[in-house]
Amino acid sequence: MMVREQIEAKLKAAFNPVFLEVVDESYRHNVPAGSESHFKVILVSDRFTGERFLTRHRLIYSALSEELAKSVHALALHTYTHKEWEALQDTVFASPPCKGAGSIA
Questions:
Q1: Which of 8, 33, 59, 78 has its CA 20 to 30 A from that of 21?
Q2: Does residue 95 lie in a domain region?
Q3: Please, which residues have CB within 8 angstroms of residue 97's CB and are 6 or more apart in sequence?
Q4: Residue 18 structural domain
Q5: What's 31's domain CATH number?
Q6: Is 75 helix (H, G, I), strand (E, B) or coil?
Q7: Minimal CA–CA distance to 5: which of 59, 64, 56?
Q8: Number of domains in the chain
Q9: 31 falls within a domain
Q10: CB-based contact 11:17 (threshold 8 Å)
Q11: If the chain, 105 residues long, is cut into consecutive pieces of 10 residues, what is the mean pLDDT of each piece?
């Protein structure tokens, strides 16, 4: 199973999301071809109701502790309740560019 698929499966099980998108952004970073190390996660779940963003991120880090300990180097997290998501009208901000981007020598 690909790392992206593992992340999706674990987040679905832990958060019962209204919306979930996991994007492999490794190609935007200075990593070898085929690396699965940088991801953007857009997660909409009522599990986040009443939780601060820091707490939401900690919950995700806990659910993905195995992946973070092994192959995942970075997660760009966009976490919303269903109500917050509706207010955004499904708009998601792009991840920032990698400061270390460039070719592998």
A1: 33
A2: no
A3: 28
A4: 3-88
A5: 3.30.300.90
A6: strand
A7: 64
A8: 1
A9: yes
A10: yes
A11: 88 96 72 67 96 96 92 86 86 62 46
